[in-house]
């Protein structure tokens, strides 16, 4: 489900219905130069390709590059990952008065607070 130009209450209500029925939910809007986008994909599984790191044997090489890890681009492994997305109601209900919240506020886009 994709929503735009909806009130906050409508977005929260439809997201709760989608989350309950395992339906992916996206919402967003743009206000001049500012905009937002929110996605609740429920439980999302995906596969990520990782490049294997070759271990350097001690004493084989000398010089400044000996401490760097070597990436072998010819060998990769597939790693299965799982992400659990939160609902819109939870994302909007963050308490910003604690110490952890002060640190997180520095990493949070100002547009989040405009949406509030």
UniProtKB/TrEMBL annotation:
Domain of life per record: Eukaryota
Example GO molecular function: ubiquitin-like modifier activating enzyme activity
Chain segments annotated as coiled-coil in the UniProt record: none
SUPFAM superfamilies according to UniProt: Activating enzymes of the ubiquitin-like proteins
Stretch forming the signal peptide: none
Entry-linked Gene3D superfamilies: NAD(P)-binding Rossmann-like Domain (3.40.50.720)
Protein name: SAE1 enzyme
């Amino acid at each position: 489900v994709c929503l735009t130009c909806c009130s906050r209450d409508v977005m929260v209500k439809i997201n709760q219905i989608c989350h309950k029925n395992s339906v992916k939910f996206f919402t967003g809007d743009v206000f001049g130069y500012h905009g937002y986008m929110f996605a609740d994909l429920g439980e999302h599984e995906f596969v990520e390709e990782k490049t294997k790191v070759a271990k350097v044997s001690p004493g084989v090489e000398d010089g400044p590059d000996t401490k760097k890890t070597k990436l072998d681009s010819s060998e990769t492994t597939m790693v299965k990952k799982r992400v659990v997305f939160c609902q819109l109601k939870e994302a909007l209900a963050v308490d910003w008065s604690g110490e952890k919240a002060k640190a997180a506020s520095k990493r949070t886009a100002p547009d989040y607070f405009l949406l509030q």
